[in-house]
């Protein structure tokens, strides 16, 4: 690969990151809190790429040393390197900026079985109100690892998409810790009158559920997946950012 191509790749990577930041599509890859680092990375790559291109343009009129030139364009057998194929590296880089893949869904997120109980941990008090909104991943963690059992006796509201399994319908969210590469699936099994309504929706339909978590329902026998007795189920629009954090 020629130095010019290397510099162009560097510049195009920085520009692709800048385009994703400007369009907001970066949230399909990483969590929103990483936005400042993406901005810094884009600026650094663009500045380095431009500086390298300007340097090469200024030095284009200089006559290269014959020995160095011969070594650069021939390998040890005397054959000329084929650097044209290196330009194909630019195709996937450009596509990242202009062809945006959708965020991961249930098929793209792993749901590994729990091998042991999560260690007990403390949680902040639930928000006030008759049915506070609690994220699905937090419900899963509170049900399995909260020694204070803060969910017992509390009606809560949760939102996510439907998933059907042989034992019933589940409320799920795709959770990412850092980026889409570590995506996992957080699930809550639905029961009660709302479960039948949720089952009537198609797969991966976004819904809002109000109900109570069954005390002690998350244990090793079900991979620490809690059961929520759903009183009401309402269909909602798919959010702009489908990930939970």
UniProtKB/TrEMBL annotation:
<dbReference type="InterPro" id="IPR052955">
    <property type="entry name" value="UPF0703_membrane_permease"/>
</dbReference>
<protein>
    <recommendedName>
        <fullName>TIGR03943 family protein</fullName>
    </recommendedName>
</protein>
<keyword id="KW-0472">Membrane</keyword>
<feature type="compositionally biased region" description="Pro residues">
    <location>
        <begin position="115"/>
        <end position="129"/>
    </location>
</feature>
<dbReference type="Pfam" id="PF21537">
    <property type="entry name" value="DUF1980_C"/>
</dbReference>
<dbReference type="InterPro" id="IPR048447">
    <property type="entry name" value="DUF1980_C"/>
</dbReference>
<feature type="domain" description="DUF1980">
    <location>
        <begin position="150"/>
        <end position="245"/>
    </location>
</feature>
<feature type="domain" description="DUF1980">
    <location>
        <begin position="8"/>
        <end position="106"/>
    </location>
</feature>
<feature type="region of interest" description="Disordered">
    <location>
        <begin position="109"/>
        <end position="129"/>
    </location>
</feature>
<dbReference type="InterPro" id="IPR048493">
    <property type="entry name" value="DUF1980_N"/>
</dbReference>
<dbReference type="InterPro" id="IPR015402">
    <property type="entry name" value="DUF1980"/>
</dbReference>
<keyword id="KW-0812">Transmembrane</keyword>
<feature type="transmembrane region" description="Helical">
    <location>
        <begin position="34"/>
        <end position="54"/>
    </location>
</feature>
<dbReference type="Pfam" id="PF09323">
    <property type="entry name" value="DUF1980"/>
</dbReference>
<feature type="transmembrane region" description="Helical">
    <location>
        <begin position="85"/>
        <end position="104"/>
    </location>
</feature>
<keyword id="KW-1133">Transmembrane helix</keyword>
């Amino acid at each position: 690969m020629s130095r010019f191509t290397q510099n162009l790749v560097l510049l195009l990577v920085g520009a692709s990151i800048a385009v994703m930041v400007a369009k907001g599509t970066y949230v399909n890859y990483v969590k929103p809190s990483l936005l400042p680092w993406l901005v810094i990375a884009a600026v650094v790559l663009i500045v380095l790429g431009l500086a390298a291109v300007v340097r090469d343009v200024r030095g284009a009129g200089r006559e290269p040393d014959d020995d160095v030139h011969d070594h650069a364009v021939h390998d040890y057998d005397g054959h000329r390197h084929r650097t044209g194929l290196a330009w194909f590296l630019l195709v996937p880089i450009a596509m990242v900026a202009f062809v945006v893949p959708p965020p991961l869904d249930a098929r793209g997120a792993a749901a590994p079985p729990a091998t042991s109980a999560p260690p007990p941990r403390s949680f902040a008090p639930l928000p006030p109100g008759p049915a506070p909104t609690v994220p699905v991943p937090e419900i899963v963690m509170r049900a399995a690892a909260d020694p204070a059992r803060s969910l017992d006796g509390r009606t809560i509201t949760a939102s996510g998409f439907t998933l059907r399994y042989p034992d019933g319908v589940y409320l799920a969210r795709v959770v990412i810790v850092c980026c889409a590469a570590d995506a996992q699936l957080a699930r809550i099994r639905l029961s009660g009158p709302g479960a039948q309504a949720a089952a009537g929706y198609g797969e991966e339909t976004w819904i809002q559920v109000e109900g109570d978590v069954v005390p002690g329902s998350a244990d090793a026998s079900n991979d620490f997946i809690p059961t929520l007795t759903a009183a009401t189920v309402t269909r909602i629009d798919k959010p702009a950012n489908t990930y939970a954090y």
